Amino acid sequence: MKKEVWRFIDSGMGSPSFNMALDEALLDWNSEGKMPPVIRFYGWNPGTLSIGYFQKAEKEIDLAAVKRHGLGFVRRPTGGRGVLHEQELTYSVIVPEEHPEMPKTVTEAYRVISEGVLKGFHNLGLEAYFAVPRTDEEKDSLKNPRSSVCFDAPSWYELVVEGRKVAGSAQTRQKGVILQHGAILLDIDEDKLFSLFKYSSDRVKERMQRAFKSKAVAINAITCEKVTYDQAKIAFKKGFEEGLNIELVPYELTEEELSYVEKLARERYESDEWNFKR
After folding, report:
1. CA-to-CA distance for 109 and 185, rounded, in angstroms?
2. Spatial distance between the Cα atoms of 57 and 49, rounded to a whole number of angstroms
3. Which value, in Å, is the radius of gyration of the alpha carbons in the chain?
4. Could you tell me which residues come within 8 angstroms of residue 110 by beta carbon, excluding any fewer than 6 positions away?
5. For this structure, is 224 an active site residue?
6. What distance, in Å, lies between the first and last C-alpha atoms of the chain?
7. For position 151, what pLDDT does the model report?
8. Are 13 and 44 in contact (CB under 8 A)?
């Protein structure tokens, strides 16, 4: 049976505003029928702290620390908590809600899309699996997260290796389109990550950082040989093709598309009104 063809965009290392603007633009173009389903891979230059759409930036984030570390800062159009994007492969998936392979519920669609990420981990030789909260306490903790840090705990169908979270993803549905993007950690600087958030006391910060070590892990902390960014791209591109039963065909943005993205980046994702609105 012939596989469905999706576009594949490898946009390289982008600024925080460009990265979020391109994801939004792809959603818009898909909604308008100008773009078929897309999978995009990207990185961040500079390293960036992104926060979820509903987070309160000035209440939760130590913005002086973000500046001190020379990091970018941006609010995502998706929910979730704070993510330090540095030593990682970031992916996004843009697909219509009405796509025949997409379940109607957010949770089940998340599982279907994340099948591609799961296969990518398998391609790297890692025994990843989906986390499914079992107890009422675990389910309640998803509704009321105690931490501003995304990788603090696995949520429904999050990817886990050896009991620890290895990828964090978020999803939004707008204009009849699903946008899911996520961070696949290659390495992580935990001290830097935890310096970026506000805490009620040093003791609380220390306790959360200790707990984090038992809940999250980067790929290169659990592999015998270091996985590079380029190796990860190969493994996860193949993973998405296997997991979603699709063929990915490379696509380059036109000059017109690129200028639209750059305009959106300037007007929305570089504006204080967007990034600090809550």
Report:
1. 22
2. 11
3. 18
4. 156, 157, 169, 171, 180
5. no
6. 49
7. 42
8. yes
pLDDT at 145: 45
Residues of the chain below pLDDT 70: 133-156, 278
User: For residue range 79-88, what is the model confidence (pLDDT) as tens digits?
Assistant: 888 899 999 9
pLDDT at residue number 134: 55
Extract the tokens encoding 172.
């939004």
- Give the number of other Cβ atoms within 10 Å of residue 135's Cβ: 8
13: β partners:
43
Catalytic residue among 39, 74, 131, 150: 150
The pair of three-digit structure tokens given for residue 236, joined into one six-digit string: 């996860």
Check if the beta carbon of residue 77 is closer than 8 Å to that of residue 28.
no
Tell me yes or no: is domain 4-275 CATH 3.30.930.10: yes
Which pLDDT value is given to residue 184?
95
What one-character-per-residue DSSP string does the chain give? -PPEEEEEEEEEEE-HHHHHHHHHHHHHHHHTTSS--EEEEEEESS-EEEE-TT--HHHHB-HHHHHHTT-EEEE-SS-S-BEEESSEEEEEEEEETT-TTS-SSHHHHHHHHHHHHHHHHHHTT--EEEE---SHHHHHHHHS-S-SBGGGS--TTEEEETTEEEEEEEEEEETTEEEEEEEEES---HHHHHTTB--S-HHHHHHHHHHHHHHB--GGGS-SSPPPHHHHHHHHHHHHHHHHTEEEEE----HHHHHHHHHHIIIIIT-HHHHT--
